[in-house]
């Protein structure tokens, strides 16, 4: 049940986040989808990077190392923003679960019908799927204030030393001071 819900949310995120982040002018009001995009970018920046140590030698190995910021205040700002946006994600997931329970009539999942199912069962599955998608788009289109987030200075990310993916930088663009 949870796997299907997470997969549906992941598909929605993967398909819409890059388009929303690329198209939204900075002056527009942020949506829940924008906040979730920023959260994903912040979590990636807060994570680790893959490095090859002793490349080409007998003891070559791939290791995961944290990014090198050398700035305690930046780490606190990242943690604060992740905490605030984590609440947005938790609330959105709770709302999505409530919608799923309503649409599935308490089952907690929308299961595709068997190949031999009746036309009515297939139509009901399609109706539930479309209604869930519609309500998820409504949930993620709700306003989400990003002005309460701490701005991040691009120079503090030390991009010459930290190979942060362009996708993560694009995701946090709304709160990034260049």
Description:
It is a single chain. This protein has helices at 2-23, 32-45, 72-103, 119-141, 166-171; strands at 48-53, 61-66, 152-153, 176-177. A two-stranded antiparallel sheet has the order 1-2. Strands 3-4 form a two-stranded parallel ribbon. Helix 3 (72-103) packs antiparallel against helix 4 (119-141). The N and C termini lie far apart (42 Å). The chain is mostly helical and 178 residues long. It has 5 helices and 4 strands, in the order H-H-E-E-H-H-E-H-E.
Distance between the termini: 42 Å
Return the average pLDDT rounded to an integer. 83
- Write down the Rg: 20 Å
Shape: flat
Contiguous low-pLDDT stretches (5 residues minimum) are 1-27
Count, helices: 5
Approximate helicity band: 40-55%
Order of helices and strands: HHEEHHEHE
Number of strands: 4
Strand order of the largest sheet: 1-2
Estimate the strand proportion: 5-15%
Which structural class should the secondary elements be placed in?
mainly alpha
Largest sheet: 2 strands, antiparallel
Features:
about 180 residues; flat; two-stranded antiparallel sheet; 4 strands; mainly alpha
Summarize the structure.
Helix content is 54%, strand content 9%. By secondary structure, it is mainly alpha-helical.
List the helices and strands and how they pair.
Layout lengths: L1 H22 L8 H14 L2 E6 L7 E6 L5 H32 L15 H23 L10 E2 L12 H6 L4 E2 L1
Parallel strand pairs: 3-4
Antiparallel strand pairs: 1-2
């Amino acid at each position: 049940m949870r796997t299907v819900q997470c997969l549906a949310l992941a598909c929605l995120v993967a398909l819409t986040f890059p388009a929303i982040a690329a198209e939204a002018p900075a002056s527009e009001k942020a949506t829940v989808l924008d906040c979730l995009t920023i959260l994903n970018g912040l979590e990636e920046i807060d994570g680790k990077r893959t490095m090859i140590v002793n490349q080409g030698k007998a003891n070559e190995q791939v290791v995961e190392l944290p990014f090198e910021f050398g700035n305690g205040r930046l780490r606190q700002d990242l943690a604060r923003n992740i905490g605030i946006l984590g609440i947005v994600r938790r609330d959105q997931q709770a709302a999505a679960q409530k919608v799923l329970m309503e649409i599935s009539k308490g089952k907690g999942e929308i299961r595709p019908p068997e190949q031999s199912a009746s036309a009515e069962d297939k139509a009901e599955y399609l109706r539930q799927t479309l209604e869930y998608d519609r309500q998820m788009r409504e949930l993620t289109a709700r306003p989400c204030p990003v002005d309460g987030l701490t701005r991040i200075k691009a120079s503090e990310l030390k991009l010459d030393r930290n190979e942060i993916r362009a996708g993560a930088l694009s995701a946090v663009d709304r709160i990034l001071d260049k």
